[in-house]
Amino acid sequence: MTPTPRSRLSVDAHPAKGPAVLSADSADPDGISPKSRAKQDALLARLREAGRLMIAFSGGVDSSYLGWAAHRVLGDDCLLVTAVSPSYPESHRTMAEEVVARFGLPHRFVDTHEMERAAYRVNASDRCYHCKSELFDTMERLGAELGFERVAYGVNTDDRSDFRPGHRAADEHGVLAPLQEVGLSKAEIRELSRFAGLPTADLPASACLSSRLPYGTEVTVERLRQVEEGESRLRALGFGQVRLRHHGELARVEVDPKELPRALERAMTERIVRAIKPLGFRYVTLDLEGYRMGSLNEVLQIHSEPIR
Which of 76, 206, 208, 245 has the fewest CB atoms in 10 Å of its CB? Predict the structure, then answer.
């Protein structure tokens, strides 16, 4: 495939100088906990052993910290790889570009084609497995072409608590999970990201756009565009952590529970409806439980219970 300008290696000619790498016995002027500092030392040691390493880089909290850490010890022997497809929000790509430019990280965009996989589009409960399989297949081909030995991704210890079939794809492809291996949680990754000066440190949790469609609802480009535009409009109304769950004619809006009182004000509910309905929804509803990770997985728990 002839590379497009986006898919070339991106290296900032004037990378920002990051702070010195923390060591377990260093002073602690910035309030980094000894526990987090020790885990970062373990992470850097693990990455140093990995050889030439590609990082699955979404531009989110975990993969940005992992990419930053890998570059500290591997330099150009690491390569951050960002997938381009309808299922990944444009905001992810924008943040990925910002991190790469600010820190001078070796980077490449690659096209992934999970939408061409029928098993992905049907949107069964193992959808994420097919998406990650496509990503890791693509990265393995790229690694063989460029001489990279291993692939790593940014799963952390908190991810064990949610249903994530993508981990099975990672296991099948022998993908490394360095953050999880050294026991780093999301909160610790945010803490260390702040010290590193990463703009992703306080980003809200995110996921691919297909995660907004209930299982059994076919994944289509049009539905993904509705979700992406809807969430963009909700953020424009001042909400930070948002999800637009696509239930056909009904849009179910989730916001951070702390923001629910504001969302429930009559003037704001009217603004939300005016923002979301024109995207093709007949009904707009606000979820009274607010945002919670994997809310569409709740149906799996319901279906697993015996019917009496």
Answer: 76
